[in-house]
Amino acid sequence: MAREFQEIQGFETKSIHTADPRSEVFGSLTVPLYMTSTYVFPNAETGGARFAGEEPGMIYSRIANPTVEVLEKAMAELEGAEAGLAFGSGMGAISAVLIAMIKSGDHILCSDGLYGCTYGLLTMLKEKFGVQFDLVDMADMERVRAAMRPETKVVYVETPINPTLKVVDLQAVADIAHAGGAQLVVDNTFMTPYLQQPLQHGADVVVHSATKYLGGHGDLIAGVAVGRKAFLDELRFSTLKDIGAVMAPMEAWLILRGIKTLSLRMERHCENAKKVAEFLHQHPKVTNVYFPGDENHPQKDLIARQMRGSGGMIAFEVETLEGGRTLMNSVRLAQLAVSLGEATTLIQHPASMTHAVVPADVRRDEMGIADGLVRLSVGLEHPQDIIADLEQALAKISEPVATGSDKGKGPHSAA
Which residues carry this modification: N6-(pyridoxal phosphate)lysine (predicted)? Predict the structure, then answer.
């Protein structure tokens, strides 16, 4: 079991010491990896008591595993939550949380941008089970209030939004959600608990794709939810156990290793992204840049209040879909791949990749994802090497599309 660390305030210290295995009989410095599917009961009475919930202890690794349990407690500590629950993927966490919160006929109100697979899940829930959902521009609180219904049970938010990087005022949305009897669920994947802690701004449940920054090395698939212990205990013995999106102990072990360096990596991601964004703003073939760290960002005050840093994600536009393809086919250092948050810089085209499942009119008109939008996950390489790679790739686009005052005028641009 992990030691209590209430006296320690620094996130960096918590990320290293929260997962402390020193109660283990062999004194292992790192958390042991428990590769077991089941657990032996000392007697029939103990087995019965554990299944009845009358006695703590391991039963079966689809429900709990000692290595996974250490990760769950560590994530709860880092997010300031009562408890955590691990899943086999980020979508496993999202689907388990939403299914536990809603029933047929309920309504989910969403930020006007969502990960494509989250949109796909919501569409499936609507078509198969009659769960309604709407997207709303959460920059306008009056629109959020107007979109709430008596049957709204969940308000679901990404902030910054994938891939447009719009920022949502979590406390304002939480107040509206709670006044309407709904719970606020926040996807905190882009920020991690180092840069943003939504529970401190009114959220009820926070979900992560731990595949991304938490793992940090592009070598695992995993998800995590944090929130109130009573709710997550219910999830453990319902949607996790019965649907089975279970995290393997090896993935938990790798994430525990990853979060020890999370603060260092996120600082470097932020620094690199700021330099890359400055370069993109000045490039004549880039029409718009979307980056929370821009000095003149229209939501600068909110970002300073809610976030500790800008994150490592940038979205930018070139004039045409063909120009975006030329760019992505011409990079040499950056890798053309979906996902984000690892050491390597990754570049991808949301309209044809991560958000292809979203109907084109919804993608363009409601989510603001232009056909020429490119998403860049800025890695840990030297920033000048990343910039040089983008510069030579942008040069392959045949004609400049904007100059001078014509560039950088998008709704979330700093210009």
Answer: 212
For residue range 34-55, list pLDDT tens digits in order: 999 999 999 999 999 999 989 9
pTM for this structure? 0.91
Q: Catalytic residue at 62? A: yes
- CATH class, 11-259 region: alpha beta
Three-state secondary structure of the chain = CCCCCCCCCCHHHHHHHCCCCCCCCCCCCCCCCCCCCECCCCCHHHHHHHHCCCCCCCCECCCCCHHHHHHHHHHHHHHCCCEEEEECCHHHHHHHHHHHHCCCCCEEEEECCCCHHHHHHHHHHHHHHCCEEEEECCCCHHHHHHHCCCCEEEEEEECCCCCCCCCCCHHHHHHHHHHCCCEEEEECCCCHHHHCCHHHHCCCEEEEECCCCCCCCCCCCCEEEEECHHHHHHHHHHHHHHHCCCCCHHHHHHHHHHHCCHHHHHHHHHHHHHHHHHHHHHCCCCCEEECCCCCCCCCHHHHHHHCCCCCCEEEEECCCHHHHHHHHHHCCCCEECCCCCCCCCEEECCCCCCCCCCCHHHHHHHCCCCCCEEEEECCCCCHHHHHHHHHHHHCCCCCCCCCHHHCCCCCCCCC
From the list 187, 294, 371, 389, the catalytic residue is 187
Mean pLDDT of 259-268: 98
- The mean per-residue pLDDT over the stretch 172-199 comes to 98
User: Which position among 14, 166, 212, 308 bears the catalytic label?
Assistant: 212
187 is catalytic: yes
Q: Which of 60, 62, 149, 228 is catalytic?
A: 62
Q: State yes or no: is 228 an active-site residue.
A: no
Check 14, 106, 112, 115 and give the catalytic one: 115
Q: Where are the domains of the chain?
A: 11-259, 263-399
